[in-house]
Amino acid sequence: MINLQPYENPGYFVLLVVALLPAIIIRLNGRRSHWYETLVSFVFLFLMFDGRKWTQGVALIGYTIWQFAIVALYLRYRTKKDSPNKFSVFFWSVVLAIAPLTVVKFTPLFDHGRSSIVGFLGISYLTFKTVGMIMETRDGFIKDFHPVKFLQFLLFMPTISSGPIDRYRRFEKDYDRTLDREQYLDLFGKGIDRLFLGFFYKFILGYGFGTMLLPNLQRQAMQARGGFLDFSWPLIGVMYCYSMYLFFDFAGYSLFAIGISNLMGVETPKNFNYPWISHNIKDFWNRWHMTLSFWFRDYIYMRFVFFIMKHKWIKSRVTIANLGYLLLFLIMGIWHGETWYYITYGIFHATVMICTDAWIRWKKKHEGLLPHNWFTHAVAILLTFNTICFSFLIFSGFLDRLWFH
Amino acid sequence: MKLAKRLWLILGPIFIAMLGVVTLLFWPGNYGQSRQDNVEKAAVSLSPNVFKGNLLKSAAFNEDYVPFIGSSELSRMDPFHPSVLAAKYRRDYQPFLLGSAGTQSLTHFFSLQTAGKELNGKKVVVIVSPQWFVWNGIQRGMFSYYYSNLQTNNFLEHAKPSDPMAQYAATRLLQLPSGSSNSTLTEAIIRIKAGVPLTQFQKTYLRLSERLYDHEDSLFSQLFLRDNRPTIAKGEETLPSQYDPWVLDDLATQMGKGETTNNKFGIQNKFYNDRVKPVVGKLKDTQIGFDYDYGPEFSDFQLLLDFFSRHNITPLFVIPPVNGKWAEYTGLRQEMLDQFDRKIQYQLRTQGFTHIDDMIDEGNQPYFMQDTIHLGWRGWLAMDNSVRPFLENKQTTPKYKINDDFYTKAWQDKEPRLIPDMRGGKSN
């Protein structure tokens, strides 16, 4: 049985582009064929979850029915005339939508590291999409349920396994529009560009850092254990090398997903915007894994802050914001996995966020005390870069191997 | 026209590049032989490319090179290292070093897949480190480091369904991340494990990808070779021009004495300063529980034996000791090492592998080990005493009786005390 994992090797791209060729030609003529593009998506989804992965395929179908029902019912409830818009209904809809993901994320913890049978590749990203929809429905931004568009959005093939996380209203616009030849050519050109930048990132730089350099440095760091906290120079190498690997591998992957979306006429939002030139941690989270951090910002942090303010449980805005950061990054850490290093990574980022906020407030109070010029800017970038690389060293789990194995 | 032009601007460069790559990689001819210079370099380079590729090994084994299969000790290139001795005294063999930190039986088995027929009927030397035989076997990362899809490709092309060797190797491959690095290969490995013949599609795929990997090998594997020849040459300069084992042993004693002055373990000064001194206090009695008597490595090792048997190869197995003073300090039990020796020798001797240089008890010989677990100075010379006659004299063609029980968990877990002791004095 042929099984194809998305973007795993050059052959995949050849097959995918050949399959999309008729759709591209149709689009070059200023038209579009939804049914053909859907057929291609279906075939590639099938190839992704067939063979030995068939259990995941079944899980995906079950999951889709589950989410379909929740979103459809909640939308119907909210679009009823004089909908009471009760918090409890909203709350339970979100809980039910998150339930499968929660089960999948916690199964390994309670079942000796085994993965859950309801899990499949991409479950997190699909959950982000539906929860986002429920939130926007509560706010009244999504007003009608369109079964076909919902499925197209949820199961959009280029982004199914690892994002970027699109938003329903944005996707819907792209889905409905028909581009003329000029517009499509622009988008097509951009898509091809992104695919090739992605090749360079993932298959050349990511491979170089992750497969060629990293194991070497890790081995040296393991051999040099024994000093204070098992610290050694190779460990510093591991830190930078892993950070570079993480970026180029994931940014490359995201570029593939965006590039293929572009060929299908959809402008999936970008996921990375030169994160290494961030001048502080807040700037960084606006540039790194953007669709995820925006999702967490809009649907966890903001909701939390408004909720607390509305109920006036805490007076101090600073305290609310700090608690919000802690909540956001703790959830993000736990989402990555229930290990000490992911959770530490979350707490670390929350702490740096809180400190940065305090620093910015201090600077505002003492305006003019510190100059802003190219030098201070460079120092800020350097400091941010190193802080982030350190956090990725925690995230990598290598310290776990270094200290405890 | 305008559309064609714009499309050409977008896609033209890709077509040209793709044409170039496809021509380069799938060209039916071959890209010439490896350069002699590179074979010499590769013989002592210890670089991962040498394990991954095909070309350099095949070229070397078609000449007088003899594979020296081992691990990190091969990088201890003092003047008594086998490569230095062979070069200095113009022996009629030259070692081709296959071993680096982290290479164990499984890596060697797959690495030799790429050079099977060139080794038919030849001799090899295998240094079997007791440290390979930790309970969980080879580390995943280390296996990946020396792994290439070319190895698996060659393995799959020759694997016959329902062959215990192939089935065991496939099982192991699937337990390691490398086994899932290419999904088409993974599917094929699963079939071999299940004892089912490959599909026509898989066979065609293997044939096509072999050409690709071979071209890749001939284009790239000769780049990035570490050049250790200067180290070898430096070692040669230190040695007397006449070969005399007694003189050499004196020299080794002197050098060992001169280089182990800052510690009581007989460890080379530099190694002691860099790697031991900072942590020496913490390491006391940390190896009391170490055990090399059980685990998958015993079956992985069987893969090598099976491979030797099928290619009528005559191997000499060298079993090195652990630095005695160090073992005493860290609490590593000599009794456990003896049990390991007993088990591995049973596996060798019952199957007809009788060329064994057992040095497991020599850990307290002065200047025998360069550091904690690696042969050096007099240790290399002691090994040479069995290697030289083995390689220079004709050996009778061996008759092996391969026993597939060594692939089982039962053997991996077998208590050495319950095994007949077949060591009975040193033989050669």
TrEMBL record, chain A:
Membrane topology: Multi-pass membrane protein
Protein family: Belongs to the membrane-bound acyltransferase family.
Swiss-Prot/TrEMBL keywords: Acyltransferase, Cell membrane, Membrane, Transferase, Transmembrane, Transmembrane helix
Keyword Membrane in annotation: yes
Top-level class of the enzyme under EC nomenclature: transferase
Function: O-acyltransferase that catalyzes D-alanylation of both teichoic acid and lipoteichoic acid (LTA). D-alanylation of LTA plays an important role in modulating the properties of the cell wall in Gram-positive bacteria, influencing the net charge of the cell wall. Catalyzes D-alanylation from DltC carrier protein.
GO CC entries: plasma membrane
This protein's name: Teichoic acid D-alanyltransferase
GO terms assigned for molecular function: acyltransferase activity
TrEMBL record, chain B:
SUPFAM superfamilies linked: SGNH hydrolase (SSF52266)
GO biological process, one term: lipoteichoic acid biosynthetic process
Lineage top rank: taxon: Bacteria
GO cellular component, one term: plasma membrane
Transmembrane segments: 7-27
Family: Belongs to the DltD family.
Protein name: Protein DltD
